[in-house]
Amino acid sequence: MIDRRKLLVASAGLVAGTALGGRFGVGRAFAQGAMPAYKPEEGASLRLLRWAPFVP
After folding, report:
1. Which regions in the chain score pLDDT beneath 50?
2. What is the C-alpha to C-alpha distance for residues 27 and 22, in angstroms, rounded to an integer?
3. Is 48 left (phi over 0), alpha (psi -120 to 50) or beta?
4. Residue 4 has what pLDDT?
5. Which of 19, 21, 34, 45 could form a disulfide linkage to 26, CB 3.0–4.6 angstroms apart?
6. What Rg do the C-alpha atoms of the chain give, in angstroms?
7. Where are the alpha helices (DSSP H) in the chain?
8. Across the chain, how many H-helices and E-strands are there?
């Protein structure tokens, strides 16, 4: 059976491990992909449609 003291010690260890995890080799991953290999066609354009909250 887990008593209150063991639960508090375990949760404090988990919080400390999470807080210090970034400093000891568990850093953020950078999402950098390779440059795209495709070339857009000549005269290509991109059109965006914005959401309108009111439609009459």
Report:
1. none
2. 5
3. beta
4. 92
5. 21
6. 26
7. 4-20
8. 1, 0
Q: What distance in Å separates the CA atoms of residue 47 and residue 29, rounded to the nearest whole number?
A: 32
d(CA 17, CA 21): 6
| Contact (Cβ atoms closer than 8 angstroms) between residue 22 and residue 28 | yes
Reported residue count of the chain is 56
Buried b (16+ CB within 10 A) or exposed e, 5-41: eeeeeeeeeeeeeeeeeeeeeeeeeeeeeeeeeeeee
Question: Would the pTM of this model clear 0.90, i.e. be above it?
Answer: no
Tokens of 22: 């970034």
Supply 49's token pair.
């449609």
Token pair, residue 33, equals 């992909």
d(CA 32, CA 54): 38
